Amino acid sequence: xxxxxxxxxxxxxxxxxxxxxxxxxxxxxxxxxxxxxxxxxxxxxxxxxxxxxxxxxxxxxxxxxxxxxxxxxxxxxxxxxxxxxxxxxxxxxxxxxxxxxxxxxxxxxxxxxxxxxxxxxxxxxxxxxxxxxxxxxxxxxxxxxxxxxxxxxxxxxxxxxxxxxxxxxxxxxxxxxxxxxxxxxxxxxxxxxxxxxxxxxxxxxxxxxxxxxxxxxxxxxxxxxxxxxxxxxxxxxxxxxxxxxxxxxxxxxxxxxxxxxxxxxxxxxxxxxxxxxxxxxxxxxxxxxxxxxxxxxxxxxxxxxxxxxxxxxxxxxxxxxxxxxxxxxxxxxxxxxxxxxxxxxxxxxxxxxxxxxxxxxxxxxxxxxxxxxxxxxxxxxxxxxxxxxxxxxxxxxxxxxxxxxxxxxxxxxxxxxxxxxxxxxxxxxxxxxxxxxxxxxxxxxxxxxxxxxxxxxxxxxxxxxxxxxxxxxxxxxxxxxxxxxxxxxxxxxxxxxxxxxxxxxxxxxxxxxxxxxxxxxxxxxxxxxxxxxxxxxxxxxxxxxxxxxxxxxxxxxxxxxxxxxxxxxxxxxxxxxxxxxxxxxxxxxxxxxxxxxxxxxxxxxxxxxxxxxxxxx
Length: 617
Fold this sequence. Notes:
The protein is mainly β. The chain has 5 helices and 37 strands.
């Protein structure tokens, strides 16, 4: 086993929120933990946030690449933009994480394990991303991975907008535009983006036909709001995504011969309507969310597979705030999942009810206690809960924060997992396996120091476990199997940010994660060591911005193809504000041209440069 470089452990810097000013981190407002606005000082769960400025500095077109610099997060990609992409939080596979965009649950029911589709999720128009790590998603019905909450830009009075165009290696082009407007009564925002790349050859095993595997994505996202009174508001959000992808190594429909003439089409349409009351003591939010996804796969020009999924959800979220020291948050969510893959078309309903107490004492002790009751058509009722505590004390030129959480969760097997094992393509042992729900539990213990001058350091120990983990049989390909016993992730996260004057900041994180599956083996695609180092420089009254990010992953296991080699990737980005309304920017990804893989037998991009213009009006 290799050890992380000494400099990594000493300097430890990458992207939490970039900030060259001495702001008080503890006053940052966090929503994701309890679904109400809460200062970070009162939040005991492990959370992090990414701002629009962070996204602009990193420059990535895909949400997964923006997230990969956050604590505890790793990303595995099958050979470039638009290819299958899995995001892991603390070693948990991507389908165990919930993702919301402006309140829309974007879970793709058409995928085998009903998870978010990061391959087709772009960063255009996003204002803020919050991440909740671990089985702490009491109010989301989430599992052991966590929750990612994405918000697009909110309109301001008047009319404004921006547009950008970007070009780079692999024939990549990206165009995006956003417009915002409104008054005190009505407001709206609309964003659209087009991403097009020729790509590169996805498979390392291609020795004869080394063709480029391209990708196209068109995304539109809009939201509108009406303020009937100072306390009553209606909101409507709509979203449509289309992705066309080339990939390698599929089989012809007629002769079942291997071919690299493989294409897939992805289409997701989603919308959400909400009625919101915001009073001094009570708040109420009643919403309806619908998300439909179609996926089609063609081999040598013939349809080889298709799947349609739909998620419908009615939700009520309320809060009672009788005093500054007492808050109650409560809610109900009713959802229906349906899947149609031609061979099978199952559906099911699920009901969830939750309640959380939030208390504060002497402006230094913050407690929460909550429970969730879930009734699933296939697997009956489950009760989960979460407890948390945070304690702050003055210490030197700042405050020390001690925190702890304990939470439980569960994941019902997806409609596809159940149907596949009962269908014609499964055989023993999978066809003889009756899948049960996964159950998870975990706790965090942390201590942090937050200086008034702006720097902070946070250390968290986490221990989370899954009982009866479901996985696909990668040895015999018989279908979906279920482990008997616990799969564990235990480790430490170290996060820091150090502003150095007005124009320079160092930020970073390191994660040590000791994982085991139910057989005692290291869990797949969960690096034992991950570190991110970063620096941001903003001279000349912040007209010039230079960002450097160094990403490290070591000791990663993979069942097929053996262990994944360690790698280090260095990215550089820069932007210059030519005038108040015009910015020229550029970046070089993998500037050292590191030859590495995130999944065995799949290529990653070499050194690639990109440049663009951004205009604001």
